[in-house]
Amino acid sequence: MKCRGLLLLAALAFAGCIRAPEIVMVDRATALEEQASGSFKEVEQRLARAGMNPTPVPLTPNQLEELGIQPTPLVENIGKTQADRVDELLRRHCVGEGRDGLLVVTRRQCQAGRMSADDVALVERVNRARLHLWQWMRTVRPDVSEESVRKSWQQVHAEGVICGGWVESNDGTWGEKKC
Q1: pLDDT(87) > 70
Q2: Could you tell me which residues are beta bridge partners of residue 97?
Q3: Are 152 and 124 within 8 A, CB to CB?
Q4: Which pTM was predicted?
Q5: Given 5, 39, 122, 172, which residue has the most CB atoms within 10 angstroms?
Q6: Average pLDDT in the chain
């Protein structure tokens, strides 16, 4: 029994030295957990910056044409003459051959883009050149009236107008030239 008492006494003595470990609750992740989960701070900042910087919206050439903007040509129009440009405007119905022999700007019927300031200036130059031509023709044949000179010239010129070009008929309506 003595042994038993000694054991009991030893157990009680050691019980005072043995305690349960202190438990600490932490509301943050440990350093190892933070490393494992990764940090997205840099990615979040780049995403926020990208959202603040507006960038252009890519449009196809067809969408640009629908908006009335002609895309820049891939090849420069170095070899185009003024007559080629007028033919293009006639084909697009931006300009029409009037029955009086002058070019008429017909913007409302214009297809595939708009007329630029250069196009308007070209039409004015062509009309001025035609007026000068008719004036010169009158000096060569002074006995012919101006109206007759214009009509004669216009009939001959109408044959050379590009197929599909916008022309005014004798009754004042506009339509494409049939070939």
Answers
A1: yes
A2: 103, 167
A3: no
A4: 0.55
A5: 122
A6: 80
Alpha helices per DSSP H over 1-76: 2-17, 31-37, 41-52, 61-66
End-to-end Cα distance, the chain: 134
153 near 137, Cβ under 8 Å?
A: yes
Q: What is the pLDDT of residues 116-175, one digit of tens each?
A: 888 889 999 999 999 999 899 989 988 988 888 888 888 888 888 888 888 888 888 888
Give the 3-state secondary structure of residue 120. Answer: helix
Domain residues of the chain, as ranges? 81-176
CA angle 172, 137, 164 (to 5 degrees): 35
Query: Helix or strand or coil: residue 30?
Result: coil
CB 110 within 8 A of CB 65: no
Q: Is the dihedral of CA 4, 9, 10, 14 positive or negative?
A: positive
